[in-house]
Amino acid sequence: MNVDYTPRALDRSATFYVAGHRGLVGSAIWRHLEASGFSSLVGRTSSDLDLKNREEVFRFFAETRPRYVVLAAAKVGGILANSTYPVDFLSDNLRIQVNVLDAAREFGVERLLFLGSSCIYPKFAEQPIREESLLTGHLEPTNDAYAVAKIAGIMQVQAVRRQYGLPWISAMPTNLYGPGDNFSPEGSHVLPALIRRFEAAARSGASTVTNWGTGAPRREFLHVDDMAAACLHLLENYDGSAQLNVGTGTDVTIKELASLVAETVGYDGEIVWDTSKPDGTPQKLLDVSQLAQAGWTSGIDLREGIKSTVEWFRANVGNVRA
Q1: Which domain holds residue 79?
Q2: Which of 146, 177, 238, 267 does the annotation list as catalytic?
Q3: CB under 8 Å to 238, separation ≥6 — which residues?
Q4: Residue 68 annotated in active site
Q5: pLDDT of residue 1
Q6: Residue 196 and residue 213: Cα distance in Å, rounded?
Q7: Phi, psi of 17 (to 5 degrees)
Q8: Which of 185, 223, 229, 232 shows a CA-CA span of 20 to 30 A to 30?
Q9: pLDDT under 50 in the chain at which residues?
Q10: Domain contains 26
Q11: Is residue 280 part of a domain?
């Protein structure tokens, strides 16, 4: 039987599995899907379903038979975590991806979106980074293990398209932030780390706040609610083999970001930079022209997004990952 896989509005009553639905991205996608009328959302916590366990994953797919899947589950972390535990980031993510993607193919998932990261691109890729830059240079050493795992996921999606003709797609978001982020000192990315640090300094009346590196690198930031909206839009409107960049198309220096966070939380002390610590990639700005051609652009301003994230952090300070 020939099946028409042309992208169209998804069936709001069909079973939709969000892998990683408790994480930063997954929880935002879940909220957006609920708000968009999806009535049969499925999610499992890591304690209920270990995605690294192949038998468990296949049993879950056999029982739930999802029609749509977003693979947002991953082991993630900042520079410190990636540098310290590269084996974990490579092994865990490879197993999660292979198990979910193989099970999705085995049980006939119609539309699947694999989420990666902009760290898949070479450290010195031409800015802004186009999708064609993949595999054209050396990766940033501080997170190369995680990047290789995500590149493998992209390749598996492309292989499924070639071998089985399924319209699965991959999206590579820029740096994400927002409600549900990881604010822990060991595992957080730069923006939640800055929010936690400056909020603590403002509360304690500290005279200085010290941040890693020079503050010179430039980074792009996308609110997770924007990312969630992009995911549904792409599932309903995009069908292409290449991974699609998802971002805002604008960036700021880490120094500018720190000043914006300090201003937002009400910290007016001195900001110190520890230049003995690594900066990471000098710039990482995505070319989002393909995303625009697919009909989507971001709508949440960085200042507005940081303000809402700080408000969420304060309201959930006893429950956040910190």
Answers
A1: 16-179+220-249+285-300
A2: 146
A3: 7, 169, 244, 294
A4: no
A5: 46
A6: 17
A7: -95, 125
A8: 185
A9: 1
A10: yes
A11: no
- Tokens encoding 34: 């609920």
Kindly write down the DSSP assignment for every residue of 39-75, as one continuous string.
Answer: --EE---TTT--TT-HHHHHHHHHHH--SEEEE----
Residue 317: DSSP 8-state: T
Q: Which residues contact 117 (CB under 8 A, 6 or more apart)?
A: 146, 147, 150, 172, 173
Q: What share of the chain is helix, strand, coil (3-state, %, to 5)?
A: 45, 15, 40
The pTM assigned to this predicted structure is 0.92
How close are the terminal C-alpha atoms of the chain, in Å?
A: 51
> Reduced to 3 states, what is the DSSP secondary structure of residue 319?
coil
Burial class (CB in 10 A: 0-12, 13-18, 19+), 209: buried
List the one residue out of 273, 281, 278, 214 whose CA is nearest residue 251: 281
| Token pair recorded at residue 261 | 């966070």
CB 321 within 8 A of CB 189: no
What pLDDT does 322 receive? 55
- Residue 170: enclosing H or E segment and its boundaries? strand 169-173
Which H/E stretch holds residue 275? none
Contact 145, 82 (CB under 8 A): yes
Indicate which CATH number applies to the domain containing 87. Answer: 3.40.50.720
Buried b (16+ CB within 10 A) or exposed e, 152-173: bbbebbbebbeeeebbbbbbbb
Number of domains in the chain: 1
